[in-house]
Amino acid sequence: METLRLVLLFVHILGYAALLGGLLVQLRTEPKVVNSLMRDGAGTAFLAGLLLVGVLESIGSPDHAKIGVKFAIGLVILVLVMVNMRKPSIPQGLYVGLLVLTLANIAVAVFWSPVHS
Questions:
Q1: CA dihedral of residues 8, 67, 1, 9 (deg, nearest 10)
Q2: Is 28 left (phi over 0), alpha (psi -120 to 50) or beta?
Q3: Does 115 score more than 70 pLDDT?
Q4: Three-class SS of residue 20?
Q5: What pLDDT band is residue 114 in, cutting at 50, 70 and 90?
Q6: Chain-centre distance of CA 47, in angstroms?
Q7: Which of 25, 39, 46, 80 is the most buried (most CB within 10 A)?
């Protein structure tokens, strides 16, 4: 089960790396668009995250508050990406919002660590 957890965590990280890469590659270009890298990264990260929670539930008691926050942010990212996938361009505010949400979700993963007694 530990191997499955690690594989899913790896895929989850790769998904967020793809999403972030899809955003950063157009940092200095206009117009901003939702590209396939962002779509695939958001979908992969979200699905791998859901599967990872299932594995974590089976081997222990995960931090449900952290999972809830990451789920909510991830769902918002996924919906915004999918809704805007076929548009020829997206507003600068949406681009910045996707970038901030992506970085926030990564920050939650890294900095919200379990409390050790």
A1: 20
A2: alpha
A3: no
A4: helix
A5: low
A6: 10
A7: 46
pLDDT of residue 11: 98
Which contacts qualify for 79-88: CB closer than 8 Å, 24 or more apart? Answer: 81/19, 81/34, 81/38, 81/39, 81/42, 82/39, 82/42, 84/34, 85/34, 85/39, 87/33, 87/34, 88/31, 88/33
| Helices (H), ranges, 1-117 | 2-24, 36-59, 64-83, 92-111
d(CA 59, CA 48): 17
DSSP label at residue 89 = -
pLDDT of 61 reads 84
Average pLDDT score over residue span 4-18: 97
pLDDT at 116 over 80: no
How far apart, in Å, are the Cα atoms of 112 and each of 2, 42, 64, 81, 109? 21, 21, 12, 25, 6
Residue entry with tokens 């117009």: 31
Tell me the per-residue pLDDT of 42-62, one tens digit each, with 9 for 90 and over.
999 999 999 999 999 999 889
Residue type, 37: L
